[in-house]
Fold:
Amino acid sequence: MSGRSTIAVIGGTGAEGGGIALRLAKGGHRVLIGSRDAAKAKTAAAELAALAGTAIEGDGNLAVASAAEIVILTVPYAAQRPTVEEIRDILAGKILVDATAPLVPPRVNRVQLPEGGSAVAAIQALLGESVKVVSAFQNVSAEKLRHLDHPVDCDVLVCADDAPARQTVIDLIATMGLRGIDGGPIGNSAAAEALTSLLIWINRKYKVPGAGIRITGIEG
Ligand SMILES: NC(=O)c1ccc[n+]([C@@H]2O[C@H](COP(=O)([O-])OP(=O)(O)OC[C@H]3O[C@@H](n4cnc5c(N)ncnc54)[C@H](OP(=O)(O)O)[C@@H]3O)[C@@H](O)[C@H]2O)c1
Structure:
């Protein structure tokens, strides 16, 4: 990716979105935090900006999604579809990066994929071809993203039906100091979504905050 993009993080007031926002801001992008509550977004943006040492803005979900070229969704699975439905009218022509892992409390360390396999593929089916839905970040812990003084020692699986959109997000991830791996079409997101529960299991078993994955055998 060449240059600076304007990126909205819907759910950026939370753990994962806040971490992604920090890394994107450090990577030189204009970052807009979205929330159901504009005041909450502005407060979170100010806190994140202080951590990043650079400007981060905040506003309501619809306002930030409207202003952005790329929209990143980081809300709990139960809120995924309702949140997308609220902003769908302004998503046409944009890339929607969906970090959703379909966790079903309380057994979040057990794989419980939805009917059809992938929660993110279901959003691509909902939105149709005018929105390029890209699955990413399911296997990167918020804990790791938020520690800006440490490199994030894991890969990011990137799945989408639209190959140029996939590459755009891989390039965006590189600006965050992470390696994105082309994981193929959106249906393959099911594997990344399932891995999230496995990683939560591993975190608990080994008493660590952010187990991740690395793909071996490829250069770069
Ligand atoms: N945490 C991780 O380490 C991690 C790692 C990989 C992937 N993920 C995925 O990233 C997503 C977000 O995870 P998270 O841990 O960041 O979640 P979170 O902190 O619990 O929530 C993120 C944000 O989602 C919004 N939200 C919460 N409940 C909502 C509801 N009922 N309706 C609409 N919006 C709601 C809230 O924003 P407002 O109240 O400001 O609207 C909240 O700040 C999940 O799908 C998760 O599986 C998380």
